[in-house]
């Protein structure tokens, strides 16, 4: 086929003339294939309008299957039919034009004004829709034609494709499509611009179909089922219907059938043509397949998420990609991905053979299709040869410069790794391949946060980059180590989670002593062999002085030599906010972390130090030492944490929720009963009308508010009491305090008291009239009757508690379901609105035309990922660097 | 009777609008290497423009309070 250049694009309506001109064949027969198995002449699967059978040639262009793009055919309709897509427009035009002379019902003056308005809008390249709307509105008001004085009748639009004319005496007359077409034909060319149309490209009468274009068979291919039976496309089915009815209509009309039958057939034809364009028109039943499934016609093909635009053009399935379940592997680097061997053998990278890599590739080729081998070679004569068991050695021998080899994915190749939903740019990052046995992708747990991944069955996608440019770009922009800092909040998004935090917390909490053997065991694996001076020594049972190292000291070994840093951890109880003085180095909770010259002098390592989203040490590392050192540090810290936690082991069980008897009694008496008592007191006061309303609230609201407050406090009190009995040696407490996982609230609910359940921020009030369950008296306002759960999860809930807890739990469930879908749609709209904005080199944000949106990106021109928490400068930090002042006070 | 229009410019929630003279506008356009139409727009009918006496084609300088930068400058072209 000859290549043609696009000179311009024209939008308009197809005229019957044009349809006939572009048609390669008239379509008359409603059948597709004849008994001989070949397409029927003048049938719907016509050899002139495209080929879908291998071996046959197109009778129009001579192309084979795949070469011939297909050609349109046409059906001559026996009677004009309204195009559903334009039905509304036709109605507006009918209402705005004279029924006799066809002119727009506007006086000369108004007409000129509107024409001028449209011209102006066009000049400004703005949508003319607003002016056109006014034209229709004004013209429809006139009931006498200003040109021929004809009295106009009112037009009623009978959805979806009917028009009824009503005269002054309320007499109705149905306009047939032929009447409508006649009227539209009378509209002079000069009036058509008033409708926002161009008479050369879109005459209004072309909105009435007299000739129906038939899409080429390549656009509606039939498929052969396993049984050898042919199954036609939905569009073909619909076209069959149209031709059948069209024929019947013609036969009946030629035979002189009564008007009633003709009209019925006309309407049926209208139905079929309408549903051919759109099978989801309100008020008419969708056309169905024999099986009862609604047919997928024109509109359905284009519309929606799976439609042509969103499903086939904006997004499509791609080659060189793989998808499987992910599982953790803390032993691989953070910027690596473990790739199953089976996948590595399927995905290939194209390499050009040069003098420099000739021998290396020859070795690869010698292995044939065994793992680090190759699948295909392209010889210098451009012939593609598959590498097989039998020919790989021969190929390896022949291999020469200029060949291209599709070799297997190998260790060190760069690939893109992605997890849906891709909500931010960190959802796709570049990883280095590490081929492994097994069937899952392996991922270092520290990179879970940017992907928001976990290992409960999550699947992820991998894309193999095919060009050097792409690989270079990925390495520079998308590599994991490049994206340690989040562009959203200017803090590290990659860092320790869960056990990593727990491990380092255990290591650095208090003064843990490690003998040489244990200390070396932990550090050897991260290639640190110098333990430094021991912190001291203790006397062993046999009376020898044994040197020991502290946990803090060991942690210091993975820090850079010159690092200085001070901050408060998550264990800090914010003494300053409560008006007390910070004890700093003497903090009983070791919340004040001091790092001097690469040594951890005091404080405990928790989420604030190495956790993702917080990670002060990681942040400092990234700014001062760069991405490579930071990557190494995260790796080292993670392995140190694992090695440490492995020595002592760490687990959580039901006995961790045990609170001693006296503790239980205290919770019951001091928290639960006390609160319930106070609630009853409040109710009594309310009943006795002694309660005073809070400003802006009714008496009832005040009571509810006070009760809620009281019961909320009850749970907190219970938690506080429980906390006194559960020390840091408790696994759950340790995890909650260090920020590894869970919160004290979770533990409170498990061990002490579940607390008040709520729906929409209020106590549970739904159910029966005046009560939530039949177990309570109507009007009972006590805590128990409105969803206060005094038991803990471990103790177990009573039946009523359980039910009301489920009521509250349901809201949370519905909320998350609604929120995700809503925020997903919101995100889509936001992306569509902002996708073309760009920060230019001069710091301005501009859209595609170069119009400025912001004169300085974010008003301050700061990239959050390269600044301290999105601020321009961190004054505290600068001051503390110069003078010794404490942090943040 | 002409309706007395209340100027909203003094209100604390309305950022400061100042009419720029031609030399300032030229300087601005040169600084960003843009044409007049590439500026953000504001309608003459906007209450903030009303009090300034700006005509179509004039440029106003707007000083906003910004969370990130303290004070942020913006410029808008007056249009119909």
According to CATH, the fold-level topology of the largest domain in chain A is Barwin-like endoglucanases
User: What topology, given as strand order, has the largest sheet of chain A?
Assistant: 8-16-9-15-14-17
Indicate the percent of residues in helices of chain B: 10-25%
Query: What value does the average pLDDT of chain B take?
Result: 85
Strand order of the largest sheet of chain B: 1-3-4-2
- Helix and strand run of chain B: EHEHEE
Name of the CATH architecture of the largest domain in chain A = Beta Barrel
Quickly give the structural class of chain A: alpha+beta
What distance separates the N and C termini of chain A?
Answer: 76 Å
Report the span from N to C terminus of chain B: 24 Å
- Low-pLDDT sequence parts of chain A: none
User: What is the typical, i.e. mean, pLDDT of chain A?
Assistant: 88
Q: How many structural domains in the coordinates of chain A?
A: 6
CATH class annotation of chain B: Alpha Beta
Biggest interface: chains and residue counts? A-B, 17 and 16 residues
Total helical elements of chain B: 2
Largest beta sheet of chain B, briefly?
4 strands, mixed
* Cα Rg of chain A: 39 Å
Q: Which percent range fits the helix content of chain A?
A: 25-40%
Number of helices of chain A: 25
Structure characterization notes:
The complex is a heterodimer of chains A (889) and B (80). Chain A has 889 residues and is of the alpha+beta class. Chain A is 36% helix and 15% strand. Chain A contains 25 helices and 30 strands. A 6-stranded mixed β-barrel of chain A has the order 8-16-9-15-14-17. In chain A, helix 16 crosses helix 19. Chain A is globular, with a radius of gyration of 39 Å. The relative contact order of chain A is 0.05. The model of chain A has no long low-confidence stretch (mean pLDDT 88). With 80 residues, chain B is of the alpha+beta class. Chain B has a single domain, classed as RPB5-like RNA polymerase subunit (Eukaryotic RPB6 RNA polymerase subunit, Alpha-Beta Complex), CATH 3.90.940.20. Chain B has a 4-stranded mixed β-sheet, with no helix packed on it. Chain B is globular and about 35 Å long. The interface between A and B is medium-sized, with 17 and 16 residues.
């Amino acid at each position: 086929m000859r290549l043609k250049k696009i000179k311009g694009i024209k939008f308009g309506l197809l005229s019957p003339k044009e349809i006939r001109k572009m048609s390669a064949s008239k379509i008359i027969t409603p059948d597709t294939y004849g008994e001989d198995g070949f397409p029927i002449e003048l049938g719907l699967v016509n050899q002139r309008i495209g080929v879908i059978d291998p071996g046959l040639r197109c009778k129009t262009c001579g192309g084979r299957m795949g070469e011939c793009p297909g050609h349109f055919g046409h059906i001559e309709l026996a009677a004009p039919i309204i195009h559903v897509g334009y039905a509304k427009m036709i109605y507006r035009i009918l209402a705005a034009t004279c029924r006799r002379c066809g002119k727009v019902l506007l006086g000369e003056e108004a007409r000129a004004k509107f024409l001028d308005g449209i011209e102006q809008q066009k000049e400004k390249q703005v949508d003319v829709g607003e002016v056109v709307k006014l034209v229709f509105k004004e013209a429809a008001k006139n009931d006498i034609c200003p040109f021929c004085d004809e009295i106009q009748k009112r037009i009623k639009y009978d959805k979806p494709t009917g028009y009824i004319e009503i005269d002054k005496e309320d007499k109705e007359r149905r306009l047939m499509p032929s009447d409508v077409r006649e009227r539209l034909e009378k509209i002079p060319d000069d009036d058509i611009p008033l409708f926002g149309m161009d008479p050369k490209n879109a005459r209004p009468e072309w909105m009435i179909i007299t000739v129906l274009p038939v899409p080429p068979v390549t656009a509606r291919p039939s498929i052969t089922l396993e049984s050898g039976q042919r199954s036609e496309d939905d569009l073909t089915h619909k076209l069959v219907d149209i031709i059948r009815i069209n024929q019947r209509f013609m036969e009946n009309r030629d035979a002189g059938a009564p008007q009633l039958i003709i009209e019925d057939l006309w309407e049926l034809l209208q139905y079929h043509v309408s549903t051919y364009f759109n099978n989801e028109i309100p008020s008419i039943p969708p056309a169905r397949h024999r099986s009862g499934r609604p047919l997928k016609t024109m509109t359905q093909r284009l519309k929606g998420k799976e439609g042509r635009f969103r499903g086939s053009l904006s997004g499509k399935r791609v080659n060189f990609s793989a998808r499987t379940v992910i599982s953790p592997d803390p032993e691989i680097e953070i910027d690596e991905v473990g790739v199953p061997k089976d996948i590595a053998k399927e995905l290939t990278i194209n390499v050009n053979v040069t003098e420099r890599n000739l021998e290396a590739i020859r070795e690869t080729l010698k292995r044939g299709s065994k793992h680090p081998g190759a699948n295909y070679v392209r010889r210098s004569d451009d012939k593609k040869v598959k590498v097989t068991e039998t020919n790989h050695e021969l190929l390896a021998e022949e291999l020469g410069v200029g060949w291209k080899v599709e070799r297997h994915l190998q260790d060190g190749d760069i690939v893109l790794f992605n997890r849906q939903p891709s909500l931010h740019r960190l959802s796709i990052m570049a990883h280095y391949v590490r081929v492994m046995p097994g069937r899952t992708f392996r991922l270092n747990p520290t990179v879970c946060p940017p992907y928001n991944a976990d290992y409960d069955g999550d699947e992820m996608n991998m894309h193999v980059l095919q060009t050097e440019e792409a690989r270079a770009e990925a390495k520079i922009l998308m590599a994991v180590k490049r994206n340690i800092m989040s562009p959203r909040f200017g803090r590290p998004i990659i860092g320790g989670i869960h056990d990593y935090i727990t491990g380092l917390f255990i290591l650095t909490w208090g003064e843990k002593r490690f003998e040489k053997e244990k200390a070396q065991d932990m550090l050897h694996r991260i290639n640190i062999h110098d333990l430094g001076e021991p912190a001291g020594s203790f006397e062993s049972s046999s009376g020898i002085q044994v040197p020991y190292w502290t946990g803090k000291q060991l942690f210091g070994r993975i820090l850079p030599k010159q690092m200085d840093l001070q901050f408060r951890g998550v264990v800090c109880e914010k003494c300053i906010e409560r008006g007390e003085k910070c004890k700093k180095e003497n903090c009983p909770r070791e919340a004040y972390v001091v790092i001097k010259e690469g040594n951890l002098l005091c404080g405990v390592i928790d989420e604030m130090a190495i956790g993702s989203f917080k990670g002060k040490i990681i942040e400092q590392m990234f700014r001062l030492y760069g991405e490579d050192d930071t990557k190494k540090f995260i790796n080292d810290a993670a392995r140190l944490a694992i090695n440490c936690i492995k020595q002592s082991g760490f687990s959580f069980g039901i006995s961790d929720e045990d609170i001693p008897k006296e503790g239980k009694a205290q919770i019951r008496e001091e928290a639960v009963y006390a609160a319930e008592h106070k609630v009853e007191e409040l109710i009594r006061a309310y009943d006795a009308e002694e309660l005073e309303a809070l400003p802006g609230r009714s008496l009832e609201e005040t009571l509810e508010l006070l009760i809620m407050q009281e019961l909320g406090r009850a749970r907190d009190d219970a938690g506080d009491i429980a906390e006194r009995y559960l020390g840091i040696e408790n696994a759950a407490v340790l995890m909650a305090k260090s920020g590894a996982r869970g919160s004290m609230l979770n533990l409170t609910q498990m061990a002490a008291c579940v607390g008040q359940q709520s729906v929409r921020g209020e106590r549970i009030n739904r159910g029966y009239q005046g009560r939530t369950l039949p177990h309570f008296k109507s009007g009972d306002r006590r805590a128990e009757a409105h969803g206060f759960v005094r038991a803990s999860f471990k103790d177990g809930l009573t039946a009523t508690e359980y039910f009301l807890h489920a009521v509250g739990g349901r809201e949370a469930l519905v909320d998350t379901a609604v929120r995700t879908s809503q925020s997903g749609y919101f995100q889509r709209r936001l992306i569509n609105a902002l996708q073309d904005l760009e920060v230019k080199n001069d710091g301005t944000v501009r859209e595609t035309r170069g119009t400025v949106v912001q004169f300085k990106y974010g008003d301050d021109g700061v990239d959050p990922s390269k600044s301290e928490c999105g601020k321009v400068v961190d004054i505290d930090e600068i001051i503390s660097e110069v003078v010794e002042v404490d942090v943040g006070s | 009777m002409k309706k007395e229009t209340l100027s909203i410019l003094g209100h604390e929630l309305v950022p400061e609008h100042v009419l720029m003279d031609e030399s300032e506008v030229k300087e601005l356009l040169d600084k960003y290497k843009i044409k007049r139409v590439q500026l953000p727009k504001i309608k003459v009918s906007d209450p903030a423009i009303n009090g300034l006496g700006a005509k179509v084609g004039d440029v106003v300088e707007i000083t906003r309070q910004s969370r990130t930068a303290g004070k942020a400058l913006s410029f808008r072209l007056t249009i119909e």
